[in-house]
Write a structure and sequence with these properties.
about 100 residues; alpha+beta; 5-stranded mixed beta barrel; 5 strands; elongated; binds copper (II) ion
Length: about 100
């Protein structure tokens, strides 16, 4: 009886670990092209505020703050610049993964 309980616990543990791995993968993230004008840059906080154009199938043009994947991406970028890049969306998490002046 004790042995049976033990294997049952082990089975549950494997299930939990497996579920954890599934939710941790980023297979559900989508990448969109983004274009717009820089409103503000905060390299220390790795954030950039963009007045972005329509992102087809995702969101309308608006002004909003994004996180940048790396602070180095924000070097040389300042308010007023016209930029384009890539936006990675995973659930409610929006991250700019590429950003260049255009
Ligand atoms: Cu937006």
């Amino acid at each position: 009886m004790k042995r049976l309980l033990c294997s049952w616990v082990l089975f549950l543990l494997v299930l939990v670990i497996f579920a954890g791995c599934q939710s941790g993968s980023d297979s559900k993230s989508k990448v969109y092209d983004i274009k717009g004008k820089v409103v503000a840059v905060d390299a220390a906080k790795k954030s950039v505020t963009l007045d972005h154009e329509d992102i087809p199938g995702f969101m309308k043009a608006m002004e909003m703050k994004f996180s940048a994947e790396k602070s180095t991406m924000l070097e040389g970028i300042k308010a007023g610049d016209q930029v384009q890049g890539k936006l990675k969306v995973t659930g409610n998490d929006y991250v700019i993964t590429e950003l260049q002046k255009r």
